[in-house]
Amino acid sequence: MTHPLVQQLHFARSEFLRCLEGVSEEDGRRRLLPMNCISWIVGHLAAQEQWLWVEAAQGEIVTLSVYELTGHGRPVSTPSLAEMWEAWHAITTAADRYLNTVTTDNLQTFLAADGRKLPESVGTLLHRNIYHYWFHTGEAHAIRQQLGHPNLPEFVGNMKTAVYTPE
Length: 167
Known about the structure:
By secondary structure, the protein is an all-alpha fold. It has a single domain (about 5-155), classed as Four Helix Bundle (Hemerythrin (Met), subunit A). It has helices at about 5-20, 25-30, 40-60, 65-70, 80-100, 120-145, and strands at about 110-115, 115. It has a two-stranded antiparallel sheet. The N and C termini lie close together (about 10 Å).
């Protein structure tokens, strides 16, 4: 059974996808200052998932391009939306190999990367990743509003996959 926090991450991802459904390559690369563009946001969230759930948790890297183009502290970029979606899907699929094994006991353990223990527990990292999605989903929604996109989602979607379940 998938841990409830992982279910919440899956739901945050699904709302991110719902928010960005139908964005064109051109609009995905448009940057409305001071915000980043939507393609950068997609790659940036993929980079965080890769760092946490693929690299630190599994010792693998799906693609370096998300680090180079959208990683924390990197220069501003407007990467291809199609390429960032391709990377995001590949990385989240790889991340789920680890995430689908998470248990309540795992939440208090610490991952290691580059020979050092990460400073936050798996549970805290899951919270950070979920909140990161909500932050950038809101930002992407605002960008879409400013671009004049019609018929945007108005409220959190179908909660059937994110219902409360006690541990």
